[in-house]
Write a structure and sequence with these properties.
Elements: H1 2-20, E1 25-35, E2 38-51, E3 54-58, E4 60-65, E5 68-69, H2 81-87, E6 89-94, E7 101-106, E8 135-142, E9 146-152, E10 163-172, E11 175-184, H3 215-222, H4 224-230, H5 236-242, E12 261-273, E13 276-286, E14 288-290, E15 296-298, E16 301-312, E17 315-324, H6 337-340, E18 342-345, E19 348-351, E20 359-373, E21 377-392, E22 397-412, E23 420-432, E24 445-455, E25 458-470, E26 476-489
Antiparallel strand pairs: 1-2, 1-26, 2-3, 2-4, 3-6, 4-5, 6-7, 7-8, 8-9, 9-10, 10-11, 11-12, 12-13, 13-16, 14-15, 16-17, 17-20, 18-19, 20-21, 21-22, 22-23, 23-24, 24-25, 25-26
């Protein structure tokens, strides 16, 4: 009860502060959300407060069900106070993209490094609100000729999925040279570990208890005298594993070595006019992988010998000719990276890097169109069509096939549609033979946001998300989530 009173006090205090700021906006929402596999009711206030060039977005919320308030988001014990307060900052922004100084801390809906050969359209909110990451997207120009970019996907992790930097130099007014470096210091930290005991939830038989992790050992300790009487020369843990009790065996000591992947890139940009430029870029992944024949090989590289960006009225057009060696993926750190940087399968951890053997020498085209049509519909569509060597699971070998990617987002201008406040849908299908077959893989994402005006100032919003995880039969299971909330504009 004291926690609830404190939370409501903070919500009301922030609401009052936001209402006093000129140009600020505040929305409240009520709905449901799934946390740790349980459904909770949600009450939240989300003020957005502009202060000059600075903008602050807060997300103050309470989750509760018939068992009480979800404690994880308002935990000030054992040194968790700082992390709890940081969680309530949805974003902190200074300036706008294109300014000499721009940064955004918190939620990153989309972040791209340079021309995007390594990091393109990365988002750290794909699992929001179940997973709340606090990232950084920073861009600064100084001394007229120099620029620096930084991306950190999550300050709350010792090994964020994306840790990137880029420096650029303009030797001439129309020419720019850039150098980038990106790393994921430990891909295995992409697995959920709710209690922080070093045992990912997939392997942890007690995912909400940091003092316990192994059901088999718990049974042994509770029945030690019985087990000691029947065990001969075989280790107790192995005996219980054979009995099927520890079905997801995991040794934190054996698995403590970080599994990192890194990359660097160069890019060259020549401005043709204020609305058009051509560019070239090269990217190289750093590391080794083991293929299905247990043969080690170095990670590969990708080249864009020529790329073009141009703006034609309301249409932004980007086109690239792409070439790559084996063991490489363009835009390796993409929108779905936090979902597939590491997955658990058949008792093992499978990283995105370890699957690069599936991609051989390829070349082809990439196109992106971003446009607003008659102020009614906004479209953002990307399509890649490359051909060469790709892995065929059916034949278990490399075959000559297509490697295609389709990503799209469509949004309606709802100001001209009665009773509809939000209408947008998105879809991603990456690195498949035919994205129009709609056969899912680990990078597949789809969803929509629909908001209907219930009354003046009140909107009922449906948020649907579908991702896919690999199962023990080597097929993909859909993981769908639906969040329904009522937003109140204050």
């Amino acid at each position: 009860m004291r926690l609830l009173k404190f939370t409501l006090f903070i919500l009301l205090l922030t609401l009052s502060f936001a209402e006093e700021k000129e140009g600020s906006s505040t929305s409240a929402s009520m709905g449901s959300v799934t946390m740790d596999g349980k459904i909770y009711n949600q009450v939240a206030i989300r003020p957005e407060i502009p202060v000059g060039k600075m903008g602050v977005g807060l997300d103050l919320y309470v989750y509760f069900n018939d068992e009480g308030i979800y404690p994880g988001n308002w935990d000030f014990s054992n040194g968790n106070g700082f992390a709890t307060l940081v969680d309530k900052i949805y974003y902190l922004r200074w300036g706008k993209p294109g300014d000499n100084l721009y940064f955004k801390v918190g939620a990153l809906p989309s972040a791209t490094l340079g021309q995007g050969i390594l990091v393109n359209n990365y988002s750290n909110i794909m699992e929001y609100p179940q997973v709340r990451r606090v990232g950084l997207d920073f861009k600064m120009k100084f001394m007229k000729q120099f620029g620096i970019e930084l991306i950190n996907s999550n300050f709350k992790k010792s090994a964020p999925g994306v840790l990137a930097t880029r420096i650029s130099y303009d030797p001439f007014p129309r020419l720019s040279i850039g150098l980038s470096y990106v790393t994921d210091l430990d891909q295995t930290q992409g697995l959920s570990d709710r209690d922080g005991d070093g045992f990912p939830d997939y392997f942890d038989h007690f995912p909400n208890d940091e003092a316990k992790y192994n059901e088999a050992l718990e049974i042994y300790y509770e029945n030690r005298e019985f087990w000691d009487g029947i065990v001969s020369d075989k280790p107790v843990d192995s005996l219980l594993i054979d009995a099927g009790l520890n079905y997801n065996y995991y040794n934190a000591g054996e698995s403590s070595k970080s599994d990192f992947v890194s990359a660097y890139s160069f890019d060259l940009v020549l401005k043709l006019s204020k609305k058009a430029y051509i560019y070239s870029q090269y990217g190289k992944l750093i590391g080794e992988i083991v293929d299905t024949d247990n043969v080690k090989s170095d990670l590969g590289y990708g080249i864009v010998p020529i790329g073009l960006f141009s703006k034609f009225g309301p249409i932004n057009l980007r086109g690239e000719y792409r070439m790559q060696s084996k063991n490489f993926l363009f835009s390796y750190w993409d929108q779905a990276y936090d979902l597939n940087r590491a997955i658990a399968q058949d008792g093992n951890i499978v990283t995105k890097e370890s699957q690069l053997y599936r991609y051989g020498k390829l070349n082809g085209l990439f196109l992106n169109i971003n446009s607003s049509i008659m102020d009614l519909v906004s479209l953002d569509i990307s399509y890649q069509n490359m051909s060469g060597d790709v892995w065929d699971d059916t034949e278990t070998k490399m075959v000559t096939e297509a490697n295609q990617t389709l990503m799209g987002k469509i949004s309606l201008n709802t100001r001209k549609i009665a009773k509809v406040d939000v209408a947008e849908a998105f879809y991603q299908q990456s690195n498949v033979i035919n994205p129009f077959d709609f056969k899912p893989n680990a990078s597949s994402i789809s969803g929509y946001n629909l908001g209907f005006e219930v009354s003046a100032g009140m909107t009922l919003v449906y948020k649907s998300r579908t991702t896919y995880v690999l199962n023990e039969s080597d097929t993909y299971d859909a993981v769908s989530s639906m969040q329904i909330e009522t937003q109140i504009k204050l």
